[in-house]
Design a protein that fits this description.
Elements (H helix, E strand, L loop, with lengths): L11 H10 L6 E5 L2 E6 L1 E9 L10 E8 L3 H8 L4 E2 L10 E4 L7 H15 L2 H8 L9
Antiparallel strand pairs: 1-2, 2-3, 3-4, 4-6, 5-6
Helix pairs in contact: 1-3
């Protein structure tokens, strides 16, 4: 049985995120587990997620969020910011989520976070194109 779709194509956060994520070299979008994922061979970003139950803190869905894998050196600092959360399922692999509804979104920051994630998963040819200038407008 396929997963139910858990997003709306006309969601303004998703529309803007697509523009950023799909500007990376060879990036493509594919729905997985009912949510949009952004890939370049492997997944480097996802839209929407949730948190796991932690002690007395109940699990919650964070529908309008972007999930990404930060550089290990940035993780602790990002976790101090209330906009960020450890997502269910992929959080144990070092991924974080950015809740896009907590404050006005800085799309350059989103592009930078996705850039860090993209660099961990993309093949060398895509990284060469990225370093050659093929990147989201927010990073130019």
């Amino acid at each position: 049985m396929p997963h139910p779709i858990m997003y709306r194509d006309d969601d303004p956060f998703l529309v803007r995120l697509r523009t950023v994520a799909l500007a990376f070299p060879d990036a493509e979008e594919k729905a997985a587990h009912g949510r949009p994922t952004f890939r370049c061979g492997k997944v480097f970003g996802m839209y929407g997620g949730g948190t796991k139950r932690a002690g007395d803190v109940p699990a919650r869905r964070v529908e309008q969020s972007v999930l990404f894998k930060p550089d290990d050196s940035d993780t602790a600092a990002l976790q101090q910011d209330p906009r960020f959360f450890v997502p269910a399922y992929v959080g144990s692999y070092g991924w974080l989520g950015l809740d896009l509804t907590v404050a006005e979104v800085d799309w350059r920051e989103v592009a930078e976070l996705l850039d860090e994630s993209f660099r961990q998963f993309a093949p060398k040819r895509a990284l060469a194109r990225l370093d050659g200038g093929e990147r989201p407008a927010e990073l130019r």
